[in-house]
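Think of the structure tokens as a kind of shorthand, similar to the way a musician reads notation: each symbol stands for something richer, in this case the local conformation of the backbone. In the example below we present two proteins back to back. Begin with the first one, reading the sequence and then the tokens, and try to describe in your own words what changes along the chain.
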Amino acid sequence: MTPPAKSCSDKVKGALIQHWTVPDKKRPAEQDAAEKYLLTVCIFGKYMTLPWIKFKRWYLLVTSFLVQFCIGAISSWSVLNNPIDVLIYGKKDKGMAVNAFYISVGMLGTTTAIMGPWLERNGPRAGMVLGTTSFLIGCVISCISLHAKSIVGLYIGYGLFCGFGNGICYTSPVSALQKWFPDYRGAAAGFAVSGFGVGSVVWAKAYLPIIAWTSVPDLFIVTGCVMGVILYSCAVCLRNPPSSFHVGGLNIHGEVVYETQEESFQRGENVSIRSSLRYESATNLAAQEEEDPSTNDSKAQVKKLTLIQSMTSPDFICMCIMFFGNQLYGLIVLSKLSTMSTTLFGKTAAQGADIVSINGLFSFVGRLVFPLISDVIVRVFNVEHAFARKCLFLYGVISQIVIIAIIPTLIRNDSYTVFAVLVFLLTLSYGGGLGTIPCFLTDMFGAFNIGTLHGLILWAWSLGGVVGGLVFNAKYTAAIKNGATPEDAYIDSIYKILIVVCVTGSFVFMVRTNPRDRFEKGYHHSLFGKRVISIKPKDTTVNQNGSMQNEV
């Protein structure tokens, strides 16, 4: 008897489940042998290797920095708003060019969310090649569109194609580094995204001279070629570790394994660091459920959650909302900072570019230092890894709320210097959130889920850029048309953003980092070591018909 044909909805559901499931893919021995060397590429399933330089994981830090350096150009977009508006519309402050930034950020986040499972299945090298190719296509479309004075073409080229390419290129090295550096997850996350801040500094200073040398449209060809060479070169270095990889007494999941000094030397490292605090993940979930939930936190067992379990967990949902609040105002300021400097404080275009560059430096410091501080907190105070990351986010939310509340007063009083200092401090927290979130996710949900979950949470980041940015822009434009001054229009929107940041930022308290709370049956939540929420699970019983039913 033939099985009944699947309905269309069943096929769609099955395809979605298959896409969001990352199988434990075994690598061929040929790949492991080839990737022992730095210069190796795979062409139609065959590995071409130059056995000149042995691969070391430390090369990935430089590679990731360069990738993020190129993508960091997106944070310098505010320098291009006025030149593009003047080129297309004949006057600056038209407010149309900035929408390309919002679309690009939205596409970046959407891409990382959707392509995360694909990236885990195909590896960071394939992701880099696909992302770089899309980025270059976007640069060509943007150049042609600006020559034709088409803002829609710019939205398609830079917004969609460059946004797609940036999204894949952004998350490819981050996912790989979290697997290669289980002993330095915070530091690896910081290095992985710190180049983004440096890129925003350099490109903000480079855009105007390049425009003066060529033209606004040709800027995209020049920068596209430079970035394309760098990104394609970095793709050669990027790779995932073999399944047997372990370092510093830890495997890629952060589980304790035994490593001899001889193995450390074979890997080309003279120092093997073992963390004083680590998670012990049991492979047998049934055995985990039988464990006494009162196990000491520093040795509490952490379940290996599937990707779908991780995506639907209340902790991940709260992290997305929390991250949205942490990034919202920073994204809006990044896209409008140069314009705010010239419009609200009467500064020149060059001075506007200067503040964008300095702001990018603070973004770099935040991305690098915040994850490092969380690693220090773990080792010095002997606390849970995830709890240390949570403390940094708590600081970021509180500091941003205070700064956002003060900024309207500074605008009214024309206090440019204090405004700039507070924006720099706010950007420090903004960058710190982006730098800390990869290791936070890895500590919470495991190394195999980091690519997809990081992509999904970047979608929350992009949502802040698209929704927050477009709404901010629309409200500002409407207020100006109704006769409001630029100062009043900005201040009114800033107060509305403050309310959103307060509400979404409060979700940081709902992220459970205590393994006892997370993995004990039911729902439990503790604050300061005491349980404040404890909901017992439903008991599952079998009725007389043999079907399952739940009883409270």
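Once you have a description of the first chain, move to the second and do the same.
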Amino acid sequence: MSEDSRKYLREIAERVEHAHPELAVEMRDLMAGNIEMLDSDQQLVELLLASIESNLSTIFHMLANDIDLQSLKPATAAVEYAVRLAQRDIPLAALTRAYYLGQSMLLRVTLDEVERLDLPEGSRIELVRNIANAIHGYIDWMLQRVTDEYGTEHRRWWSARATTNTAAILKVLRGETVSARSFIAETHYELEQRHLAMVAWLEDPSGGAESQQRLDRLIRQVAALLGSTRAPLISAVDRTTAWSWASMPVTQVPRKTRLAIDEVISAASGVRLAMGGIEHGTEGFRRSHEQAVGAWQVALAAKKYRNVQVIADADPNVALTSILLRDQTASIRWMHRVLGKFAGPGDSNAAVRDTLDVFFSTGQNYSRTAELLGVHRNTVRHRVVRFEEESGGVSQVDPLEVALALRIHDTLGSQLT
């Protein structure tokens, strides 16, 4: 490679690296939106972004400094993402396709930058060839390594799962016909009873066998607090996540019991727990699990719950938020349409939102709203009128829509991700 080509290559790398965060998010959205199963839960989406960011950083470093591939080490986050896909039994083809989609987008972006340079035609052709060879070489090199990691982990993980209850559990969750007798024989757990499903997970993604043992102990402790006289059914999802079901002697979790569970999980640093409702029978086994998974997704994605260690489907607004998260982008866009500029940042907008929240919850009572907020009645009227005018008049304001939009803003935030 000529010295001029090296200089131009460094310039291109520096230009593209400047837009690194936005490019990584754009790649994540492309991959998650076009490859089935890569957006199956929030944790996987976050790991995908981390993998993309680490790969881009390595590529830019390689291009800017003319580093040979053999001198590089595989990006840690990229390897961890491959391992996690293997643990979730997501096909290797999905990982491979993600790398090729990323390669295609990165080539397009870098070649756009080449077009912006004032170069002789011969130098331009040489630069394009060098960029294409470097990016293709890196992708090929990296795919070999993550493929090896995926294969090793997939074999190890499935060997371990063969000794667990996972296969029987998945049959029930998929809605396949499973006899209660055969399920008991395989899992030592009864389907024809009341169930409370849970998802327990560790915040630290570097867990291993010891982490799963820790989750196992905590789940058994929670099941005992729930009054279960039988051992809970537990299945490892990956290194840091476990599904479980506890047999329930009651139809509702007493407040005292919930407080005890909160205390136990709070004392266990780095552990979080999501709980479904109490449901009966085979269908209840599935339904309670769906509720627990929904609460888990809320804990991972909704800003209001990101620091909550124990979350339940029965908690206020959790089930609703779970539904809204099925299309978070559409929910936030709709919220912006209802609240208009008052969805934006700033103390003034926050004051209007707080006023609307109290105003509609009190049956549009100005005096009661002023009393609860500790402001003058005219202040309340002024804020409500501002919102009505911005919305196109009082006839365009639907109290139910406003209340839901405020809940979305409070729970999911106002930023499109």
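Compare your description with these statements about the second chain. Residues 166-315 form a domain with the Alpha-Beta Plaits fold (CATH 3.30.70.3400).
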